[in-house]
Amino acid sequence: MGTDRVNLQEAIMAKFKLKTKKAAAKRFKMTATGKLVRNKANKSHILTKKSTKRKRGLRKDIVTDQTNVKTMKKILPYL
After folding, report:
1. How close are the terminal C-alpha atoms of the chain, in Å?
2. Whole-prediction pTM
């Protein structure tokens, strides 16, 4: 009887779609190999004291580290 209840719950949950967190969807992209890519911070203001080399480095995207990937995949189920 326990397995029937589990199967019923799975059938009910299959009807519902997971919501994507739109704030996260705007900030992260998925590569073709399945890695999450994000933009670097600290490039929007107070740029006069930052060197040209540093600002150039801030333009590049960076792969999200593995500690956050599991959480991000829950937040972004269809990305």
Report:
1. 37
2. 0.69
